Automatic annotation (TrEMBL):
It comes from the Bacteria. This is Glycerophosphoryl diester phosphodiesterase. SUPFAM superfamilies: PLC-like phosphodiesterases. Residues 1-27 are annotated as: Disordered. Residues 1-7 have a biased composition (Polar residues). InterPro entries: GP_PDE_dom, PLC-like_Pdiesterase_TIM-brl. The lineage of its organism: Bacteria, Bacillati, Actinomycetota, Actinomycetes, Kitasatosporales. Pfam families: GDPD (PF03009). It comes from Streptomyces radiopugnans. One of its GO terms (molecular function) is phosphoric diester hydrolase activity. Residues 13-266 form the GP-PDE domain. PANTHER family: GLYCEROPHOSPHODIESTER PHOSPHODIESTERASE 1-RELATED (PTHR46211:SF13), GLYCEROPHOSPHORYL DIESTER PHOSPHODIESTERASE (PTHR46211).
């Protein structure tokens, strides 16, 4: 089992920036991930979807309508079309007025998984270890293709990058494990179903990913999962009372939209 938190860190709980530092910057943009790194996050969370021409981009919703000035499903748009869109303005101005135009455009345009991996590599080259937690979002129509492309992209990057794959779909995690059993996997759970009650996970999955709602209603879940030898990564934890609950229960990672504030709270405990 891996140690909790980052190597060298005195904090027992790892803090994961959900869609980047998405409370302060537009989610899933380079700006949000750079902010998360500056804020001290131990790991970065991202959702990945396939474009019409087969690239993996970091977008949560099926459509781009909420987070860009465009319309339509990610799967119906090509990467070049997505690259024309602005994924930053919906969140308001970014404050970094002194950035050259090219840099600020890159900061708020669609983010490919490739570019996010490069950011993590750039950090590693500068001596900063940041983990990457990639969640597969995959309509049935794309069954298998998201995982295949994800593994192809990872194969083009430094194998030392600490990557894990998360999903609500046991089948998606199974595909990853079958092809790349060395990649840690996280099984996400929104509600506690009867089959989850003993803390067991789908075969080969090492990390439980319960919602904070599960822990509010069933705080005993953390002990169940730990007894089965699983780490527990909880999402999405923004409320200070929930951070306190997570610390009390001894979870292994907190996934949050506000990494700096959570780190400050944990440091004060
Ligand atoms: O980290 C898990 C969490 O991101 C799952 O929910 O909808 O934000 O992808 P969602
Ligand atoms: Ca997610």
């Amino acid at each position: 089992d891996q140690p909790q938190g980052s190597p060298g860190s005195r904090r027992p709980i790892s803090v994961v920036a959900h869609r980047g530092a998405s409370e302060d910057a537009p989610e899933h943009t380079l700006a949000a991930y750079r902010r998360a790194v500056e804020d001290g996050a131990d790991a970065l969370e991202c959702d990945v979807r396939l474009t019409a021409d087969g690239h993996l981009v970091c977008v949560h919703d099926r459509r781009v309508n909420r987070t860009s000035n465009g319309r339509g499903a990610v799967s119906s748009l090509e990467l070049a079309e997505l690259a024309e869109l602005d994924f930053g303005s919906w969140k308001g101005r970014l404050g970094d007025e002194e950035s050259p135009e090219t840099e600020s455009r890159e900061h708020t345009s669609v983010l490919t998984l490739e570019r996010l991996l490069r950011l993590v590599e750039e950090q590693a080259a500068a001596g900063r270890r940041v983990e990457l937690a990639i969640e597969t979002k995959h309509p049935t129509r794309w069954a298998g293709q998201v995982e295949e492309e994800l593994l192809r992209v990872l194969a083009r990057h430094d194998p030392a990058i600490p990557v894990r794959v998360m999903s609500f779909s046991a089948r998606s995690l199974h595909r990853i494990r079958a092809a790349a059993p060395w990649i840690p996997t996280v099984y996400l759970m929104q509600f506690l179903l009867p089959r989850h009650r003993d803390g067991r996970l789908p075969p080969g999955v090492g990390i439980a990913g319960p919602s904070i709602r599960i822990l509010r209603n069933h705080p005993e879940y953390v002990a169940w999962a730990h007894r089965e030898g699983h780490r527990v990564h909880v999402w999405t934890v923004d409320d200070p009372a929930d951070v306190e609950l997570c610390a009390l229960l001894g979870v292994d990672a907190i996934i949050t939209n506000r990494p700096r504030r959570v780190l400050d709270q944990l440091d004060e405990m």
